[in-house]
Write a structure and sequence with these properties.
Length: 118
């Protein structure tokens, strides 16, 4: 059974930081591209950052320079360090895993809420 379990969300003031974690089980983690997406109320889900199996990293323009994605293949975990948070970053954040062997094999976590407010 595949599970992606996010943690680390919460309420933070503007300018603050949070670190999200996504622990994966039931997959060969190193063979998956791991990403973070977010969805704000009334908006479509959008890509925040991706760390591919091959080591490539990409960020949405809106988070470049503020967010850092990393992964630990030994711990089957992907992280998202979020700095200089602002209210526009408020959203539910979802972990995503895409198999490099079959791009139609996609898994999602349950999401963790990030709220940036004073």
């Amino acid at each position: 059974q595949v599970q992606l379990v996010e943690s680390g969300g919460g309420l933070v003031q503007p300018g603050g930081s949070l670190r999200l974690s996504c622990a994966a089980s039931g997959i060969i983690f190193r063979l998956y591209d791991m990403g973070w997406y977010r969805q704000a109320p009334g908006k479509q889900r959008e890509l925040v950052a991706v760390f591919t199996s091959g080591g490539s990293i990409n960020y949405a323009d809106s988070v470049k320079g503020r967010f850092t994605i990393s992964r630990d293949n030994a711990k089957n975990t992907v992280y998202l360090q979020m700095n200089s948070l602002n209210p526009a970053d408020t959203a539910a954040y979802y972990c995503n895993a895409v198999s490099t062997l079959n791009r139609r094999t996609i898994y999602w976590g349950q999401g963790t809420q990030v709220t940036v407010s004073s």
